[in-house]
Amino acid sequence: MTKFDEATQAIRVDENTYDVCLDPGYSIGGPLNGGYLMAVVLRAVVDDSPFEHPVSTTSQFHKAPAPGPAQVRVERLKAGRTAAFTRATLVQDGVAQIESLVTTATLHGAEPVYADPPGHRMPPAEQCVKLPDPKPESGMTLNAQMELLFDPPTIGWLGGEPTGRPEARAYFRMTEPQDPDPFVLALAIDALPPVVFSAGMRGWAPTVDLTWHLRALPAPGPLTLIGSGRLIADGWFDEDVEAWDATGRLVAQSRQLARVGRG
Amino acid sequence: MTKFDEATQAIRVDENTYDVCLDPGYSIGGPLNGGYLMAVVLRAVVDDSPFEHPVSTTSQFHKAPAPGPAQVRVERLKAGRTAAFTRATLVQDGVAQIESLVTTATLHGAEPVYADPPGHRMPPAEQCVKLPDPKPESGMTLNAQMELLFDPPTIGWLGGEPTGRPEARAYFRMTEPQDPDPFVLALAIDALPPVVFSAGMRGWAPTVDLTWHLRALPAPGPLTLIGSGRLIADGWFDEDVEAWDATGRLVAQSRQLARVGRG
C-alpha cells in the first residue's frame, strides 16, 4: 500500500458511512487539494458499488475540510445493469463539506471505436521544467506527493511572462512510485495550477464544482495533463483538463467552474 | 408566457416541493428530452435560490419520467455570498427519476477578460438544412418546438454519409418566438441528435449524466450549437456542446456521458 493509498483509505463503519482520515500532506497552502478529496470520496463510493470504476464524478465544494478524521456518507440512488448512481457527502464535525454525484460502471478496456488525438503536443520530458520547491511556510505540502514536469511557456507566469491564455500542461507522476489508477486520476485531474495564472491572473482560485469522467483505465507510466479554458468573465472561469496515459490514450476529462482570485 | 414557459412551470407547494406537469410535447419518441427535464428542474431551483442564474447543473438520468404530473424536491445545501448549492430530485409517482446538483449565482454580464473564439465556423443559415419532419407515429414531438438548421455534413448520416467523426452543429431557435434565457439554454444544450450518429452509429443513445455551465446570459436571437466528442470506447461516449449567442458570445458549455446505442 502506497502513502497515497493509505491517505485515501475509507473504512466502512455502517451501511451508509465510511470513516476517513484527511491527510495534511495534500494541502495547497491551507485547504486540502480538491482532487485528493475526490479520491477519498471515490474510495468509499467504489467500495459500496456493484461496479468497479467511477466513470463520472461531480463534486460541489461547499467548505474546505481540515486534515483529520471525517466521514463519507454514501447513498446508492439506483443500480442498473451497466451503471450505478451514488450520492456521496464528505462530512466533518457533523458539517457537510463536499457533495458529490457519482456514476460507477465497469470499463473493459476495449479498443476505441473513435478517438481524437491530443489537441496539444508536449515537448519531451527533458525539455520540461519543475516548479520551484514551495517555501515550507507556504503550507504547500501537495507538491511533495507528485512530480509535475511543465511545458515551459505554461509556467511563464512564474517569471512574469504569462502566455495570455488560460492553459497549463505537464507530465504527472506520483513521487512514490505507483501506477496510475482511477484514484490517482482524481488527484491528477485537479493537480495543475489554475489555468488563469497563465492568462495573467493570480491569487486563490477556488473550485466551485468539478466534473470528471474516467474514460479508460490508465496504463502504467506517467500521465500527460493538458489544461485549458474557454472563457474568463464575470469573476468565473472554466478549466478543462484532459489526462492521457503513457500509451497516448485519453483516460480522463474534467471541467471545473471556478472563481477568479482577488489576490 | 410562451408554451415553453408554461411547459416548464414549477409551482411551490411547500418549503421543499414544487409541482410540475411534464409536457408530452417534448418527447423524443417515448422518453422526454433530457434538456427539457433539466429546464423544469431548474425552474424550481432558481425560484428557491437567493441568486438568479443556474451557473452549473449536473443531472443524472435514472429513469425516463412519463408526461404528466411530477414533483421537484429541492434541498438548499449551502448559500454563500456569491453562490448557492442545491440538490434537486425530479420525482414521479413517488420514484426518483432525475438527480441534480445545481450551483446558482448571479451573472452581471461584464465584458470577458478572456474569450476563445468558436472552434468551428458555421456556414450562413441559408446554406444550412432542416431535418425532415418526423413521422407522426415516431412520437418525436420535440422537433415541433424548435427550429434547428444544420451544418449539412453533420447530418450526412441521414443519407448514409456520416462524416466519420462525432459531431453536430446547428442554429437553434424556439418555434414560438422567445428570446433565449437560461431555461431555453437547458433545452438547447441537449437538443442536437447524438454526435455519435455522425460517427456512423445509430440507435437510442441514452444520456447517463450531463453537466452544463451557464457562462453568460444570451442576447436575443438564434443560438449556434457546436457539438463534438473526443472518444467512443467500451460502449460509452462523451458529447460536448457549446452554445453561442447571436452576438458571438459563448453562453453555455455542456458535457454528457452517454451509452452507444445498440439499435
From TrEMBL, chains A, B:
Alphabetical list of InterPro entries matching this protein: ACOT8-like_C, Acyl-CoA_hotdog, HotDog_dom_sf, Sec_Metab_Biosynth-Assoc, TesB_ACOT8-like_N
The name this protein goes by in its record: Thioesterase family protein
Domain Acyl-CoA thioesterase-like C-terminal: 126-260
Domain Acyl-CoA thioesterase-like N-terminal HotDog, first and last residues per copy: 25-106
